[in-house]
Amino acid sequence: MPELPEVEITCRGIRPFVAGRTLTALEVRNPRLRQPVPADLAQTLVGERLQDVRRRAKYLLLDFPHGSVLVHLGMSGSLRVVSADEPAGVHDHVDLVFGAEALRLRDPRRFGLVLWHAGDGLSHPLLAALGCEPLESGFTGAWLHEATRGVRMSIKQTLMDAHRVVGVGNIYASESLFRARIHPLEPAGAIGPQRLARLVASVRETLLAAIDAGGSTLRDFVGGDGRAGYFQQQYFVYGREGLACRVCATPVRRVVVGQRSTFFCPRCQRR
Question: By CB atoms within 10 Å of each CB, which of 50, 83, 154, 185 scores lowest?
């Protein structure tokens, strides 16, 4: 599933091509996504100016004067800038056309979303209760320490709890915990402020490194320019069960945490 870095890459990739332009057409070839694409979306938006493209957690917000289109890429979707006359493939479900160019949603599994929300898109029920953005200034060691007091859940699950911190999915949680030298099963409430400050720095470092590398190529993910990412070539632990740790050469182990595979080095990440 595209995670925060992949969605941020998409946001940065498409914004220069469409922000400030007027929507000239909207074509919905298949409205049957995770939730139906609103039937009157073209009537609502054609002729309106796209003011900005933002990201909140793993959602993209296309901001128009009187509301926002919320886009989620699902399990394997992509949102790319293409020529408006480029023939659509079988999995190309929605085009937002801006003159000679279009934003094209490709979603083979149809787990994505294209929804309309009148007013500020951040007030949509899918977004309103989300937690702290890990790349923004409010995500600090002090904040995480306060947020985890009394929390018995593992630090890995806590990082992936979108009501606390958004966008740190399975891959990036494992990689961040390795960089911070924290065992993924350690209870979040038992970790002190200095180690949590180190974890915050590691989360930010990991996400920014993934953004710089173009994200991770998972299933069919490509960025807004159609390029695949290669951050998976830099993984320290994720998907490397039995292989030598890149730091100490101890074999990487895998455990299941919250029904998700979790990878760690038992030497570098001692409990």
Answer: 83
CA distances from 79 to 11, 41, 259, 265 (A): 9, 17, 29, 36
Helix (H) or strand (E) holding 207: helix 193-212
108-125 mean pLDDT = 96
Phi, psi of 256 (to 5 degrees): -105, 120
Is 219 a residue whose pLDDT tops 90? no
Query: Catalytic: 3?
Result: yes
Catalytic residue list contains 156: no
Q: Which residue has the tokens 């929804």?
A: 115
Q: Can you list the alpha helix ranges (DSSP code H) found in 53-159?
A: 125-128, 141-148, 155-159
Tell me: is residue 109 an annotated ligand-binding position.
yes
Catalytic residue among 2, 5, 108, 134: 2
What percentage of the chain exceeds 90 in pLDDT?
85
Catalytic, 260? Answer: yes
- Inter-residue contact 147 to 113 (CB < 8 Å): no
Work out the mean pLDDT of the chain and round it to a whole number: 92
Q: Fill in the amino acid letter for 52.
A: D
- Catalytic one among 56, 58, 156, 179? 58
The CATH code of domain 4-128 reads 3.20.190.10
Q: Cβ neighbours of residue 262 under 8 Å, at least 6 residues apart?
A: 156, 170, 173, 174, 184, 254, 255, 256
**Does residue 19 contact residue 52 with C-beta atoms inside 8 Å?**
yes
Contacts with 43 (C-beta within 8 Å, 6 or more apart), sequence order:
none
The three-state secondary structure class of 206 is helix
Query: Which residue out of 3, 6, 8, 101 is catalytically annotated?
Result: 3
User: Which class is 141-264 in CATH?
Assistant: mainly alpha
